[in-house]
Design a protein that fits this description.
- By secondary structure, this protein is α/β, with parallel strands linked by helices.
- 41% of the residues lie in helices and 16% in strands.
- Strands 1-11-10-9-12-13 form a six-stranded mixed sheet, sandwiched between helices.
- A hairpin with a 3-residue loop joins strand 2 and strand 3.
- The longest helix is centred in the last third of the chain and has 32 residues.
- The radius of gyration is 23 Å and the shape is globular.
- Belongs to the hexokinase family.
- One of its GO terms (biological process) is mannose metabolic process.
- Pfam families: Hexokinase_1, Hexokinase_2.
- One of its GO terms (cellular component) is cytosol.
- It catalyses: a D-hexose + ATP = a D-hexose 6-phosphate + ADP + H(+); D-fructose + ATP = D-fructose 6-phosphate + ADP + H(+).
Length: 491
Amino acid sequence: MPAFGPRRQPSRRGSMADVPKDLLERITELEHLFTVDASKLKEVMNHFVKELEKGLSKEGGSIPMNPTWVMDYPDGHEEGTFLALDMGGTNLRVCEIILPKEKGEFEIIQSKYKMPEELKTGNSDELWEYIADCIQQFIEYHHEIEELEDMQEHIPLGFTFSYPATQEYIDHGILQRWTKGFDISGVEGKDVAELFENALKKRKLPIKLSALINDTTGTLIASHYTDETMQIGCIFGTGCNAAYMENVGSVPKIAHYNLPPEMPIAINCEYGAFDNEHVVLPRTPYDVIIDNDSPRPGQQSFEKMIAGLYLGELFRLVLVDLHDNKDCQVFENQDISKLRKAYTLDASFLSMIEEDPFENLSETGDLLQRVLGVKANKPELELCRRLAELIGTRAARLSACGVAAICKKKNIETCHVGADGSVFNKYPHFKARGALALREMLDWPKGTKDKVSILPAEDGSGVGAALIAALTIKRVKEGNLAGIRNLEGMK
């Protein structure tokens, strides 16, 4: 059995013996709400394929399917020193990466900086000033001042900007909309590359932005650098997304560039926006609440059902609803004021519940009391455990639909998928649950090995960004200037 193939999880049916009838009925209702069977998965996958194709058309669709102007995989002969900037949902990371011209090899030094919460809803100038400050701190810490002053050429930088952006060039990107809880004024509809470069120029830093990329595209390129069977890059973390290599002839919306139809181009799907029309996804009343109360109602429908940012909130909403339901005695006569605060819980809370190894769920009880100030009895602990399993399982199974849809669209029968993100790496059973869902959707014969395996990715936002910067410079030197705007400093 493959390393990430489906594994049978221990049954806890016997543990429900002492759960009161009213609570058992609520658990049964929740199982009905959150369970996604094989037939529904296939329905979601088939609709997904159509939406991927629609996104590539001139008319477009809910899924942006953004051309990235990354035109090929690395060949292993890339070399040089590069900077990488990763602006994620929680942290800002700055890396210096040395590619030694040996395939699959690299050296990296890096520093992380916390993204202040107030910046996420602040203004544009504050954001870019903070980012430039972090880069300056990194450069000055790792290089002597004299060394910086003597630099004849700028250090090429790959900027991992993990938000939907329209790119007519690889070194430019118009932010379509903020995701992951960000709502910074003065950035949507603007070229984030230009805003970033202006902040660097103020500090006279010897840096040249060579490529603006998405973390998913970086994951695809970095993973293929060390494993040529990688054909899809995915992120399952605060948000969700995927990237894959398409041929230009299958992307009607860039036909006006008159590029060779067989030329490859990486597509950043941004498929967190899948099914914004609410045609096929099995949304629950709790999903509707999350959507309605979000900064962008009606957007990122798929992401709001599976991404780490929302799993804890789903769990919280269900518990509050059960407590307030007079037909069900949950946390009766207890103060649940902490539980009523939106986004008090994140995906790690559910992870800890699912990882509780004790039959009496004592660690779950301690967790509820420590974080929420709630003292739960055994039936309530069983409810929490089952609810966490249901939410986590649904997220993993639906997450696999995007991978399956890309495989079906591209007629990929066997490949590796590079995946990164906190949910993929840390959430218990996520890999096995996703693997089982792929098996059900793609109809692999029983007893055969998984033909598509989702594996831990290389560092896409660091190494991937550096590789894409290297590939861009290489293209300029070869005279392949498709999708490159500012040639100054790249030749």
